[in-house]
Amino acid sequence: MKIIKSVFTILVFSLTFVACTDDGNDPIIAVEENPLADYNKLTSFSANDHTIEIYSEQNSYTIGYNELFFRIKDNVDEQYLKDVQVSLMPMMHMVSMQHSCPKSEISKTEDASVYKGFVVFQMPGNADEYWEVTLEYETGGQNYAATERISVVTPSDNKKRVNVFTGSDEKRYVLAMMPMSPEVKVNDFSAMLFKMENMMSFPVVEDYKVMIDPRMPGMGNHGSPNNEDLTFDSNNSMYNGKLSLTMTGYWKINLMVENEMGEVLKGEEVTEENESSSLFFEIEF
Amino acid sequence: MRIHNGTRGYLVALPFHTKRLYLFLASILLLTWANLHGQEIKVEIPSDSVLAITLKEVIVISSFNRALEHKTQHKPLSTLDAYLESSSKLNMVKRGGYAWEPMMNDMSSERLSVTIDGMRIFGACTDKMDPITSYVDVSNLSDVHIASGQHGAEHGAVIGGAIDLKVEKSDFLPKEWNGSVETGGETNNNAQIVGAELNYSDERFYIDSDIIYRKADNYVAGGGEEVAFSQFEKYNFSANAGYKVNKGQKLTATFIFDEARDVGYPALPMDVSLARAFIGSIGWSQQKFLGDWTNWETKLYANTITHIMDDSQRPDVPIRMDMPGWSDTYGYYSQARLKLGQHRLLAKLDGFYNRSLAEMTMYPNNSDEREMFMLTWPDVRTLNSGLYAEDMINFANSSLRLSARLAVQGFNVADEFGLNSLRIFYPEMAQRQTRLLKSVSTQYQKEFEKIQLSTGISYGERAPSVSEGFGFYLFNSFDNHDYIGDPDLQNEKALEVNAKISVPLKKVKLGFEGNYFHTMDYIIGEIDPTLSVMTIGAEGVKVYRNLEYADLYNLTLDAEYEIIPALKATGLISYHRGTDQDGRNLPFISPLAYNVLVQYAKNGFSGSVTMRGAAEQVHFNPEFGEDQTAAYTVFSFSLGKRFSIGNDNLFAKAGVENVFDEFYSTYTDWNNIPRMGRNLFMTLSYAFN
Lengths: 285, 689
Known about the structure:
Low-confidence stretches of chain B: 1-16, 32-53, 67-72
Order of helices and strands of chain A: HEEEEEEEEEEEEEEEEEEEE
Structural class of chain B: mainly beta
CATH superfamily of chain B: TonB-dependent receptor, beta-barrel domain
Number of helices of chain B: 5
Number of domains of chain B: 1
Number of helices of chain A: 1
Oligomer: heterodimer
Structural class of chain A: mainly beta
Mean pLDDT of chain A: 87
Helix content of chain A: under 10%
CATH topology of the largest domain in chain A: Immunoglobulin-like
Low-confidence stretches of chain A: 10-30
Strand content of chain A: 35-45%
């Protein structure tokens, strides 16, 4: 099977190569390459004579961590705006209130026309409640704001990748799992922890500890060896650790969050009697 | 099912059997009487030893027209396992009615070499449900050579010894067309056996072929309890041919196909839906070689095994699973002999490449969840290259045998998925590793008057097996633990001392044999309390570890009494002991065991009475899943008769095993599954020339 795969890959590559050579012979066609061609365009809308495009690796906005890429096109000259200051504000319009969610600054990328950042949605939209994103940017000495309603859904596999909880310190937290491609091995495993200061502000919590205990409820709730609890890394503001997965299938990553004093804010230890922590992530592969 | 009886000792146990002993003695008398009324024509009983005194043992198997009255086997069409069990050197670990695992000197598969005509083959089952001996049948074989300890080094790097299964060949005998049909049946498990062989042989060319089919239902233990999931079905076909290219130059080829289906393993939580082997080789041999070297023999071989373990027939399992495994081996050997004065030299170059892969897929009870998959053998590639040399020096009344093997063995964990899995436990684990394996052995043999004495000292090493080095959550139902391999295990190293004395008196021959293995870095699974179990219901996780050392003793006393030329009694009593550096009992060590066999053979009539038994197990270890095995004694007898019909022969044999329907299990019975109760068998063979 592997041999067939590699032969096939070589075939595809050689065909591509032949095709490229043919194109190269014809210098007149010069298509501007979309630097985000490999991503999915989730949103595109016009405002202020600009077209705002939002891309993601995912094919929808889902609850949990979303890395997003932005481009802003000038509808007059069809050029993308480069090196502008961008900021983002997501907002959940609930029936009785509205609130934002954890998010990052929007930064520039290697490509001057592409900006990126992340958003952690805590909840999906529904018939009566919805998310809106507002992009603020400055170009030509003028400030603009563009707002669009977006649809945030639960992931298609219905697996839990974000937890909103009230700690034993009576504070509200958002704990989001970083996207990963799980394999049967010791995986790098990361999460982000935010404190809800108010409806609009969710700063990163530093120097806590996230303890993990992966289990397979479908098979006697067995665990795995050599996991490493997640500790804070100030370089990327994430909690990093190691997750061992001894087989494919459905894993429940039981969690406990400890503050810098070593006090457990949320989560319970998994024992014979207690099959699961109230705080957990889910992985299936 | 477990029998605990702490107070009943071995000697106390005997009176329970006295009645049976009387019956046993009565049957001996009966046989003697039969002899007195028979004609005084001596039937040659094939001798089962090459030299008068040797540490090797040969079990004769070949079809009845070559060795009519098998000396050791009372049931001609029994499985190979039953033949092997009749050996004084072997014990069989039994997980059901089929595919028993041979043990020699209290050591099993990973410490032995099991070969078919010198070909290395490795089972494809992570749970040792398919020992190599299950991939051949008695119809394929002429005999089995058993070499204890480093005497088995000719076939590979071993600790416990070697079992070489010899394929039956016409070998250019001018017999032209000949063949036979055989059939047999057994009452206990409704076993049916049908076999046939057809051969052609002349001085230039021969071709042998045989086919056998066996089917058995569940067997019934002593007392009438049916042992569920002990059924099996198997068919085997083999062909081998030879062509004399020139005088002294022979080209040979062998092919064996073996397939078992629907094999139940009552002692295990899973059964086998398919176990299939293709085994093939081509050989070249010539009388002359370089210089004074002669008997040059070269063989190329390949074999591939598919083993599908599943639990689809089991009504209640906590989770459904499939565990297929594959093992492919390619190898060669080339050897030549040299006679130089008193020296007889043998030099052999050999090598093999094995690929072992096994998977496990578990199907969650919640059908929305994805299936769980893991590699239990991560596609381990083993490459072994060895050089073996042996010198037999003959003196006037004595001889000295020196031998040595040097081998290089490399492992490569070829599957990335499997390598990453193991790196969960061993983050620094290398994908490849190489080991050097050494063996030296000396054996001195001397004859005083008629007393023969043999003594030897040897040293040997072996690399960890695929399971021991690279196994990933292998469930062992015997001690109820999951096992994890350790790629960083040290080689196991054994220092072995043996001695044998044989005293032939007038009509009695006495033999005493003992060996002692001091095995350093003995590999065994030890509990790691920090690890959590994978298998539902398992008690814990064991990781293969090197013990500091283990000591194994095996002592055997045998006697042979020729009552009259046609009537012979043989008896054997053996003692075994195995402990580690802390005096802990090692698992699978035989209690005191004995057997007595009385055989009568004359005029095409044969009869035998067998008594086999063991004392209560004193040294056992619950840490390794063992409990105390009670004493037992079982009796069997058989009667056979050959009829001549023109040039052809008809041979009929019938007998009863476990005559008194004793309910018993031995120390080698996995999870104490009881052995077969009373069983009547009958075989009919017709040979035409």
